[in-house]
Amino acid sequence: MAKVDKKKKPEKTTPEESFSTFLANGSHAGVVSEPHVLDEESGHETDVMTASFSSQPPLADKQLERSDDAFHEVPALPSIIVQRYEGEKYQEQFHGEGVAYFQGGHVYKGMFSVGVMHGHGLYTWADGVKYEGEFAFNVPMGHGTYTWLDGSCYEGEVCSGIRHGVGTYRCANYSVIYRGQWHHSKRHGKGTIHYNQEATSWYEGELVNNNREGWGVRCYPSGNLYEGQWRNNVRHGEGRMRWLQLGQQYSGIWENGVQHGQGTHTWFLRRVTGSQYPLRNEYTGDFVQGLRHGQGSFYYASGALYKGEWKDNKKHGQGKFIFKNGRIFEGEFVDDHMAEFPAFSLDGSNTPDLSGIRTHTPRPEDGKRAPGGDSGSGPALLGPDMALDITALLENLPENQRDLQLKQVEFVVLRHIAELRAIYSFYSSLGHDQSPDNTFLLSRLQLWRLLKDCSVHQQGITLAQIHSPFSTMLLRRFLSCVVVLAYNTYHKDVEPSDTILVACLSKLMRENIIPNAKNVKGLLFPNPMHAVIAVNYIERCWEIYKAFCRANPTPLADQTMTVRHFIWMFKDLSLFDAELTTGKLLEILSVENPAAYSRYYCNLDLEMTFLEFFEALLGCAELIQYFSTQMGKSKEILQVSTPEEMEPRQSPNATELDSWVQKTHQFFTQRFFPAYEYSLELRREVQEERLRQTALARIALAKAKEDTPVASTTSVVITKQSPASAAKKKRK
């Protein structure tokens, strides 16, 4: 038996290079953050109107990434000098399964072949490090597992005693896991590194000599994500960084971890349900060491635009600023301000007073002709966002007056455009949570509210034929509707002339819209908190409204509901009681529309819009008694957040809101909706019973038909025998 094995282990491998930081822990200040950016250093919100977009979101998380020193090096096998052996032998050599005790306290237990470790075995170093796996001629080779005293381990391919191929390393102390390719005991090739136990911080991509290099994706514990090129563990090349909590994104060229070169930085604003589009501020242009520097364009969420030169994150040099109202300033900018007007604010979010600023409008050739007019009569007075579409209305006028009438009514719209824009913005935001700039589309429901506030429904114009309350319209469609509404309302009161459209629109603006708009009435929209909560019930109520509408006899008219049908609905659903009577219901309807009911008469054939239908239900909800008084339950029921900071919990306003929420919830969820569901179930049962009775009747009829032919045959036979008998009797 050989006491000393002449075969020696290859030289000890060079200790593995430690992980450099898990990722460069941020870069110095660079690309600015736009409106409502949270400064991670201070935890406070930055006022961009005063900060002039000068702070930059961190490029990485504040948490320092741990060192790669946690990755243990693979120990080498010492000179193999066997002090004692226990196991199988063949011709005085270790052969088969056995245990070898080496000089220095190392132990091997496993397979031997002709005196060497060969096959599967477990090698334990004197310091406790273990290797279990395949051996080939005294060398770990193939697939195996290294285990260290602290619980760290490597499992994967091994070549000549070092990690080489595909394997997984788990660090016990720092919960770091690497799965991927290895080359000469270094992370090299494609792999994935998880930096925490929750797997919220990770890197997946290419590595070279233990460093992130090539293409890879890095996700930080905060959820921030970078996808792009790397070099020497930092972002370098083309890539995209997304700050999810801050709502920002940069896509472009990086150099040594900072934005440098051409790129686009976007600041996303919170999108509120119902708004027209996701709002954003966006800069596209040159970056130098993380700062806007060179030529670039900044697009504001409001529609304003700056295009020109930048220096250290500020407008500096020649540039052009287009305000959101279309006015243009071109000239020199110094330190983020106009050189000629240094005190003038350029935040782009508000329409400023331009009376003292040298501006000009876009060139006329940039305009487009509004639909409904002759394309050869010149450019449209209104921009593309306000172009009127009143072709059907113009067909009612003499052909030789149409172009002139269109031009004149455009002048009137242009004269009142500020008021109409403000009215559109105001009513389109009703029933919504606060938005950075209240950019919503006007819905039919909100249009109904506007027309009722302006008493248009009292001019003999029906509003009930408007379709779904959830359909929306752009500003230009709203302007066209106002013009058409003005003509239909007042054309009989105005003498026919070549200015009839102007006269009708001016009268509507003067007598209805300007004096009454924004004075919100009714029960749905006047209280913002009530409106936000009440909209939770609208969709279900719209289904019920459609179900109880009765077809209007006019062929072209839409289905509508009348006061009579509304009362019948309450009777069918058994909603009337001691508190809610027919008289109370009529009083609720007459609050905003006196034509529905008075002490001397009631008009049951008066049409009801869905808005009137829904507000009448809200009025009914206020009549009922409620018993639960816990604010928390109301929040949980409705799944809406009532900001506690708005009013103290014990304040009268909070108590009033709590009472209203409880009453509304109780009426809809415990009375109105269940009553409707019960009526549907009752109808289904009645229908099923009718079908069952019909089926039984058919079965009885079929059975009767089966019995009928037998009786007929008998009678026929008798009939046939009767003549024979008669003949026989005759012969006799």
Short description:
The protein contains 14 helices and 28 strands.
Fold and architecture overview:
By secondary structure, this protein is of the alpha+beta class. Among the domains are: 230-346, Histone H3 K4-specific methyltransferase SET7/9 N-terminal domain, CATH 2.20.110; 390-512, no CATH class; 528-626 and 657-682, no CATH class. The chain has 14 helices and 28 strands. It has a 22-stranded antiparallel β-sheet, with no helix packed on it. Strand 7 (130-136) and strand 8 form a beta hairpin. The longest helix has 80 residues, at 652-731. The radius of gyration is 42 Å and the shape is flat. The model is unreliable at 1-55, 60-69, 348-353, 361-378, 626-650 and 711-720 (pLDDT under 50).
* 3D shape: flat
Largest sheet: 22 strands, antiparallel
Strand content: 25-35%
Task: Output the structural class.
Answer: alpha+beta
- Give the CA-CA distance, first to last residue: 141 Å
Weakly predicted, low-confidence segments: 1-55, 60-69, 348-353, 361-378, 626-650, 711-720
Rounded mean pLDDT score: 77
Query: What's the count of strands?
Result: 28
Tally of helical runs:
14
Q: Classify the helix fraction into a percent range.
A: 25-40%
Rg estimate, integer Å? 42 Å
Comma- or semicolon-separated keywords:
732 residues; alpha+beta; Histone H3 K4-specific methyltransferase SET7/9 N-terminal domain; 22-stranded antiparallel β-sheet; two-stranded antiparallel sheet; 14 helices; 28 strands; flat; disordered N terminus
